[in-house]
Each structure stands twice: as C-alpha cells, then as structure tokens.
Amino acid sequence: QVQLVESGGGLVQPGGSLRLSCAASGNIFRISTMGWYRQAPGKQREMVAVITSGGSTNYADSAKGRFTFSRDNAKNMGYLQMNSLKPEDTGVYYCNAVGVTKMFHNFDSWGLGTQVSVSS
C-alpha cells in the first residue's frame, strides 16, 4: 500500500556530491521515521541516516559531517545530500519509511534502491 522510489544515484569521483531522493506514495496518513541504508558488495545492509517526523536525525559515524538528511513531510519526500564522497560510500542505497496508513495500519516499507558508485 505504500511505495518508495529512490532516485539520484550515479557514478561520481571521490570528493564529489550526490543528492538522493526518496518519494513515498500510497495510502499514507503519517510517516514517522525515514531512513537511508546502504548495502555494499558482499556486505550486509547498514544504516546511513534516519530522520524522525520532527526532523531529528541520526547518522552513521561514516556519514557524520558529510551527509545531510532532510525531509518534506507535506510531500512525503526524503533527501540525502552526500558531500565529500569516498570510494567506501559505494553501494546500493535503500530508502525506508515507517508510519501509519489512512486505514490506521502500520507500515514499514522499502524501496528498490539506487546505485551509488564512487570511483576515479
């Protein structure tokens, strides 16, 4: 009932920037928490950043000072600004959203991911 679509990934050189977007749609009443997760080749998915409905954020140590997570509650959108990218930031980035539908059912949805590659 709730779909997430990520966009904005691509190939960038070390030191470059990318802005990822996550668009949530469907029978949404409220999104409580949005998150960005990364899965590097051969590794488990890991949290990159999460944001609450009030705008409070939490970042992985590797993302602190370089990434900024923001959201537009009215549009059900989330944005991850990634600066000073490093090769170790390479991976598939997934958006996650937790909330309540208009039928007052809880949801915990994931997008299909967007590839970020950092290489010279």
Write up what this structure looks like.
It is a single chain. With 120 residues, this protein is an all-beta fold. Helices cover 0% and strands 61% of the residues. The protein is built from no helices and eleven strands. Strands 2, 4, 5, 6, 9, 10 and 11 form a seven-stranded mixed β-sheet that branches. Strand 7 and strand 8 (77-82) form a beta hairpin. The chain is elongated, with a radius of gyration of 14 Å. The model has no long low-confidence stretch (mean pLDDT 97).
Would you tell me the overall average pLDDT?
A: 97
Helix content: under 10%
* E-strand count: 11
Distance between the termini: 40 Å
SSE succession = EEEEEEEEEEE
Total of DSSP H or I helical runs spanning 4+ residues:
0
Calculate Rg over CA atoms.
Answer: 14 Å
Low-confidence stretches: none
Structural features:
120 residues; elongated
Walk me through the topology.
Blueprint: E1 2-7, E2 10-12, E3 18-26, E4 28-39, E5 46-52, E6 57-59, E7 67-72, E8 77-82, E9 91-101, E10 106-110, E11 114-118
Parallel strand pairs: 2-11
Antiparallel strand pairs: 1-3, 3-8, 4-5, 4-9, 5-6, 7-8, 9-10, 9-11
In short:
With 120 residues, the chain is an all-beta fold.
